[in-house]
Amino acid sequence: MKIALIGYGKMGKVIEQVALDRGHEIVLRIGSRNLQEFSPQNLVLADVAIEFTGPESALHNVMQCMEAGVPVVCGSTGWNNKLYLAKEKCAVTHTAFLHASNFSVGVNIFFEINRQLAALMNDRPEYEVRVEETHHTEKKDAPSGTAITIAEQILEALDRKEHWSPDAHASGNLLPIVAYREADVPGKHNVKYSSAIDEIEIIHTAHSREGFALGAVLAAEYIRHRKGIFTMRDVLRGSDR
């Protein structure tokens, strides 16, 4: 498979190594120093693009890939309010698009556990819930896209919670998401349910970026010959839709 890497920072370089280890070829590497090479002529050399940049450039980058007819996997977070535009473009261009707040296989298993635990807790109002996340100091968005995904899953299941809030002291119908930034932390997420008598907590801790990179490459392999909008749930379940 021939891959275009849109975003060639720390994450892009780890994705490159994982892709090479799996027998793929990198035909385009776009970073801040060679933006002039991000062109339709260069994009069409790729079977699929993997985009990891930032919220300010993600939509433009994704649109450019799809306009060139190249399926695109996007791991940039912080632009969820514009995702619908990318999905509309995917339908018009008849290509493939997969966006995820987190590509780690472990995190996506964590997502499934989170959904099930929240459903079990819907009839347990004595438990108060909060989401916490810790990332490296270079991460641009806070709370993280993964933490927001976790919170939205909880909101879908818990009738007593209606919205999430970045306020650590939020209560009532608000679900707090607390974000911490520390040096050299790839990512840690935890959900804690607390009552007067006990606590239940689920935690995912990333030890390196390799787990995220592997998931992104698996997603690229999955959408290469497909058309439509997909999620990591499709990838991990091996859906043939």
Brief synopsis:
The chain is α/β, with parallel strands linked by helices.
Task: Give the CATH H-level superfamily of the largest domain.
Answer: NAD(P)-binding Rossmann-like Domain
Second rung of CATH, namely the architecture of the largest domain: 3-Layer(aba) Sandwich
Backbone shape: elongated
* N-to-C series of helices and strands: EHEHEHEHEHEHEEEEHEH
User: Which CATH first-tier class of the largest domain would you pick?
Assistant: Alpha Beta
In percent, how helical is the residue content?
25-40%
- Give the CATH topology of the largest domain: Rossmann fold
Counted up, domains total 2
Mean pLDDT: 94
Strand runs, count: 11
End-to-end Cα distance: 21 Å
Structural class by secondary-structure content? alpha/beta
Number of helical stretches of at least 4 residues: 8
Strand order of the largest sheet: 2-1-3-4-5-11
Q: State the assembly state of the protein chains.
A: single chain
Largest sheet: 6 strands, parallel
How large, in whole angstroms, is the Cα Rg? 19 Å
Strand content: 15-25%
Task: Give a written overview of the molecule.
By secondary structure, the protein is an alpha/beta fold. It folds into two domains: 2-103 and 210-237, NAD(P)-binding Rossmann-like Domain (Rossmann fold, 3-Layer(aba) Sandwich), CATH 3.40.50; 105-206, Dihydrodipicolinate Reductase, domain 2. Helix content is 36%, strand content 25%. The protein has helices at residues 10-21, 40-43, 58-67, 83-93, 105-121, 145-157, 210-223, 232-237, and strands at 2-6, 25-30, 48-51, 72-74, 96-99, 128-135, 163-165, 174-181, 187-194, 199-206, 228-230. The strands form two sheets. Strands 2-1-3-4-5-11 form a six-stranded parallel β-sheet, with helices on both faces. Helix 1 packs across helix 7 and helix 5 packs parallel to helix 6 (145-157). The radius of gyration is 19 Å and the shape is elongated. The chain starts with a strand and ends with a helix. 40% of the residues are buried. The mean pLDDT is 94.
